[in-house]
């Protein structure tokens, strides 16, 4: 909405949003501002605070004035752990699990991740992009403006690079910032059966350097687990990442305690993810290195896990907790980040405030984007969401309801404002 049709062309700001209730997520807690104003210039937040503190009349300061109509505005949501690019689905395996088979049994019998590998190897770049687009759409509709996407269903050079290329293509086509993670060490491909060390050599010497040289890798991940790779093998992948100057993260302690959290912390890792079985020593190591705990309630729920991640230890040691969908066909076929907020509160007893911080401030930290994303602060990307809610806790409270009333990314409205 423009103010009175007058456009102030020499104003310093492109636009200012007035009449907003802000959950800046800066500092601690919601960082709430009841009668807030938020100004945008050149795609970034130029000014944010109480409207009463604006350094002049809004009409003089900004070319366009938007009325937020008392809606809440939060930072754009960040889904910092997904495997959303893949071929096929695993609904059949879901049925098998409900007849009594476990996730590990299915994996050991050559199903699980490997069946998605077969489907992904058979998919073209276009097919990977279009199937992922359908799954990302509901996330974008919920205000997701940054998403992490992993490889790990190719397990050979061509398919790993094709997956990462599909992730980059999604970032070009859709109004979302994509951060990629190389997850070649996700599972052992059939052609390397009983030769896990040789597969790790192949990843470290060939696939990862090729993906990095093509500009396709923002971070390097691995699955450190009895059904996947040992701490030793994981460390060889981390060493290769280090040689390439890439940050690391890890699927750690999802099904058992392998000491993965301490290992990734030793490499100054961005995050350790899952962590149901992490020890206090692992948590302390993460605290010392500033490694974020990425909690994934979708996988916990879908695998009917009963061991809770030790969120009391994370709190006590001051480890930042992020939340993500883990969107993948096997353990978390989830495409709602808001649902994860609800699950984090009901299943993990996180507070709604912690849950929202987990998909904003700490989601950004988990991706190494804390300086540019995750809070409403001057200088950061003008990525934010308008919500038809009475209080921020509502974002975690409802189940299967989307109160998103508009999305702004890089200062531009990318999802039309609802006029309700
Ligand atoms: N842990 C998970 O939960 C996903 N990957 C991983 O390392 C599951 C991936 C899958 O089952 O396809
Ligand atoms: Fe995962």
Describe the structure.
Strand 8 (177-185), helix 7 and strand 9 form a beta-alpha-beta unit. This protein starts with 12 loop residues before the first strand and ends in a 5-residue tail after the last strand. It is globular. The relative contact order is 0.14. The protein contains 16 helices and 16 strands. It has 420 residues and is an alpha/beta fold. The chain has helices at residues 58-61, 91-98, 103-108, 113-121, 125-141, 157-173, 196-213, 231-243, 260-266, 280-289, 297-302, 311-317, 337-346, 352-358, 361-366, 394-397, and strands at residues 13-23, 32-41, 44-50, 62-67, 72-75, 77-79, 144-150, 177-185, 219-224, 249-252, 271-274, 292-295, 321-323, 384-387, 404-409, 412-415. The strands form two sheets. Strands 1, 2, 3, 4, 5, 14, 15 and 16 form an eight-stranded mixed beta sheet that branches. Strands 6-7-8-9-10-11-12-13 form an eight-stranded parallel beta sheet. The structure holds 3-[(4S)-2,5-dioxoimidazolidin-4-yl]propanoic acid and fe (iii) ion. The site of 3-[(4S)-2,5-dioxoimidazolidin-4-yl]propanoic acid has 14 residues, from helix 4.
């Amino acid at each position: 909405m423009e103010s009175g049709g007058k456009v102030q062309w020499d104003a310093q700001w492109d636009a200012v949003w007035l009449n907003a209730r802000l959950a800046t997520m800066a500092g601690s807690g919601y960082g709430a501002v009841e009668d807030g104003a938020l100004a945008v210039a050149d795609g970034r937040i130029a000014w944010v605070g109480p409207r009463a503190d604006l350094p002049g009349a809004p009409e003089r300061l900004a070319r366009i004035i938007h009325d937020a109509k008392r809606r809440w505005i939060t930072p754009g949501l960040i889904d910092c752990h997904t495997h959303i690019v893949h071929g096929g689905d695993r609904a059949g395996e879901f049925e098998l699990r409900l007849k009594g088979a476990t996730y590990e049994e299915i994996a050991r019998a050559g199903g699980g991740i490997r069946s998605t590998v077969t489907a992904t190897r058979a998919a073209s770049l276009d097919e990977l992009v279009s199937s992922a687009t359908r799954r990302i759409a509901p996330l974008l509709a919920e205000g997701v403006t940054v998403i992490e996407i992993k490889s790990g269903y190719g397990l050979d050079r061509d398919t790993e690079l094709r997956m990462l290329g599909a992730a980059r293509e999604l970032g070009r086509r859709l109004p979302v910032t994509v951060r990629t993670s190389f997850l070649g060490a996700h599972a052992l491909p059939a052609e390397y059966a009983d030769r896990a060390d040789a597969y790790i050599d192949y990843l470290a010497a060939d696939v990862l350097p090729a993906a990095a040289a093509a500009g396709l890798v923002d971070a390097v991940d691995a699955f450190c687990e009895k059904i996947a790779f040992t701490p030793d093998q994981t460390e060889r992948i981390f060493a290769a990442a280090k040689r390439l100057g890439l940050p690391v993260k890890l699927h750690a302690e999802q099904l058992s305690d392998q000491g993965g959290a301490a290992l990734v912390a030793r490499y100054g890792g961005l995050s350790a993810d899952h962590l149901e079985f992490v020890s206090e020593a692992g948590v302390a190591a993460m605290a010392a290195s500033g490694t974020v705990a990425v909690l994934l309630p979708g996988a916990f729920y879908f695998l009917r896990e009963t061991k809770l991640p030790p969120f009391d230890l994370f709190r006590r040691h001051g480890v930042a907790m992020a939340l993500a969908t883990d969107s993948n066909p096997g353990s978390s076929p989830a495409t709602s980040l808001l649902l994860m907020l609800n699950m984090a509160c009901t299943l993990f007893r996180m507070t709604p405030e912690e849950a929202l911080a987990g998909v904003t401030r700490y989601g950004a930290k988990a991706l190494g984007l804390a300086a540019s994303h995750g809070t409403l602060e001057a200088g950061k990307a003008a990525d934010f969401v308008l919500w038809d809610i009475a209080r921020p806790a509502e974002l975690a409270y409802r189940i299967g309801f989307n109160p998103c009333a508009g999305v702004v990314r890089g200062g531009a409205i990318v999802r039309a404002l609802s006029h309700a």
